[in-house]
Amino acid sequence: MKKKYALLFILCSLSLTATYAQVIIGGGYGGGYYRARIHVRGGRRPANNYRKPEPAFAPEVNISIGYGFPNVDAYQFSNYYGLYKGNVTQTGPVTGAIDYRYNRYNSIGVMATYGKVDIPYTDAYNNYQGKINLESWSVMLNIMQYAPLTNSATLYFHEAIGANINNTSYYGNVPTPTPYALAYQLGIGARFKITENASFFGEAGYGKYIIHGGLSFGFK
Predict the structure, then answer these.
(1) Residue 133: beta bridge partners?
(2) Which pTM does this prediction carry?
(3) In this predicted model, what pLDDT tens digit does every residue of 158-192 receive, in sequence order?
(4) Which one, of 83, 197, 156, 187, lies nearest residue 215 by Cα?
(5) Which residues pair with 37 in a beta bridge?
(6) Do 208 and 164 contact (CB within 8 A), yes or no?
């Protein structure tokens, strides 16, 4: 069932990204200026209306730090025959990213995450049987698309893919786990300026976390 939700989210994200790209290509966000002609009877010259061109965009480097919830790594492990998951203890994922925004609508960079989950198991009588500890680092290529809403608010989409570096240990009568090597994160969110160089962001997504928030700092 979770895979169906993940697939649905991926398809929706790709659809939104494609639609947004078409808008940008068509100039829908004011990426230049337009001229409208109004034809009036009586031989008068057509009136020309111009939209003021946007100021030139200066490329910038963005450094972001954040915290996600819940830690989706815990979803890798389910109930086994005669064993049932207890209350999961989790840390993170804590996230960090550095991105180069080379134009008003796109950036490329690297995203890293760190998280840890402790998963206890009990038998049918609620007797403790053991636990699995998973500590995971991930490094992912991060591609972002932006849709400016106002001078201080920007909608964004991002797709990240890379690899997990896993450190797994298990205790007691539990199977040997095999965590995922592939890391990915899809997200849609918004960024709000606090100062000229600092912003707060919040997003929803799927991959390493479901909700995520933090701070971003831009340097030109």
Answers:
(1) 118, 169
(2) 0.74
(3) 999 999 999 999 899 888 888 999 999 999 999 99
(4) 197
(5) 48
(6) no
